[in-house]
Amino acid sequence: DAKTTQPPSMDCAEGRAANLPCNHSTISGNEYVYWYRQIHSQGPQYIIHGLKNNETNEMASLIITEDRKSSTLILPHATLRDTAVYYCIVKSNTGKLIFGQGTTLQVKP
Amino acid sequence: GAVVSQHPSWVICKSGTSVKIECRSLDFQATTMFWYRQFPKQSLMLMATSNEGSKATYEQGVEKDKFLINHASLTLSTLTVTSAHPEDSSFYICSAQEAGQGDSYEQYFGPGTRLTVT
Fold first, then answer.
1. B104 vs chain A: nearest CA distance in angstroms?
2. Mutation for A interface: B103, B104, B105, B108, most A CBs within 10 A
3. Shortest CA distance from A101: residue in chain B
4. Which of A45, A46, A93 has its CB closest to that of B103?
5. Which of A24, A54, A78, A80 could form a disulfide with A18 if both were Cys (CB 3.0 to 4.6 A apart)?
6. d(C-alpha B31, C-alpha A93), whole Å
7. Nearest chain B Cα to A103, which residue?
8. What pLDDT is stored for residue B103 in this prediction?
9. How confident is the model at residue B53 (pLDDT cuts 50, 70, 90)?
10. How far is Cα A85 from Cα A101, in angstroms, rounded to an integer?
11. DSSP state letters, A43-104
């Protein structure tokens, strides 16, 4: 299973874009990158996923480098409710999601 | 979006007793469900993969005789913690993947069950 590396914590000002990086240098060609977030004492919430192309939905944008060894999750206008732990996960061929330590994003007023 | 529920949301039990946690996919059928455990200030740890109609596959280090998993239908998986001890106190979370969907589709997570063993 490909491993991911994320910074343990980040701060972001409310209303500004939050850019969360993730390294996944051992990713295989057919493995997807998924992003979830977890607000305290709740189940993880799906955000976005991608394979090769950049993706955008109502929550965020996902930028994947051409070599696919890293990606960045972008929350375009962070709010206080976006404060959470963000997990970048490479989904294995078995369908398993193996969670790393994630990045704790603190959005500040 | 797809909804996964868990019941109960929290439970307190005495040491030595067994506790059953249910995971239901409410508006879709799930061939595969996953069970996770999360200790305070730690990440989610995958315990097992539950497949409808077959035996669960446990991750290394997870005792299959202690954590019994049953996936009897396409909408229900249960996790039974047998002979619970205080060290089993944790946040148990399930996820489900819609039947027929492969690697390009998301898993939907339940809200979690807080187990406290006294």
1. 7
2. B103
3. B43
4. A93
5. A78
6. 16
7. B43
8. 59
9. confident
10. 9
11. --EEEEEESSS-EE-SS-EEEE-TTSSEEEEEETT--GGG-EEEEEEEEPTT--------EE
Report pLDDT digits (tens) over B66-82: 999 999 899 999 999 99
Nearest by CB: A43 against B45, B93, B106 = B93
Whole-angstrom Cα Rg for chain B:
14
Share of chain A above pLDDT 90, in %: 83
Longest CA–CA span in chain B (Å) reads: 42
Instruction: Give chain B positions within 8 Å (CB) of A101.
Output: 43
The token duo for B46 is: 């995958």
- pLDDT tens digit at each of 109 positions of chain A: 678 999 999 999 999 999 999 999 999 888 899 999 999 889 999 999 999 989 999 999 999 999 999 999 999 999 999 999 999 999 877 788 889 999 999 999 9
